[in-house]
Amino acid sequence: MSTAADEVLAALADPTRRRLLDVLAALGDASASSIATQLPVSRQAIVKHLAVLDRAGLVAGRRHGREVRYAVQARTLRDAAQWMTALAAQWDARLDAIRRLAESSSPT
Q1: Residue ranges covered by each domain of the chain
Q2: What is the DSSP string of 30-96?
Q3: 86 pLDDT band (50/70/90 cuts)?
Q4: This model's pTM is above 0.85
Q5: What distance in Å separates the CA atoms of residue 108 and residue 17, rounded to the nearest whole number?
Q6: Architecture of domain 3-105
């Protein structure tokens, strides 16, 4: 797993950032001010959370007049989900092998 993936997982570890992503996904794109009306945190806190999400590649901001509007970057989320799915499949295979071994060696 790369440093970029580490940043994604670290960013997603915070429940406020996950909620922020949910709100942003529902709105399509939005400014920090409009996101702040949806969450119980200040606009300044939203800006800080958006910076973390932006560094991780989970959101991208674009200037629209005097404000910056943010949107979720679905590709980054898909990449993280694919990695987690592959990891889960590896663990499922290992656990199945352990189960088969345990069942074959137990007396009947």
Answers
A1: 3-105
A2: EEHHHHHTTSSS-HHHHHHHHHHHHHTTSEEEEEETTEEEEEE-HHHHHHHHHHHHHHHHHHHHHHH
A3: confident
A4: no
A5: 52
A6: Orthogonal Bundle (1.10)
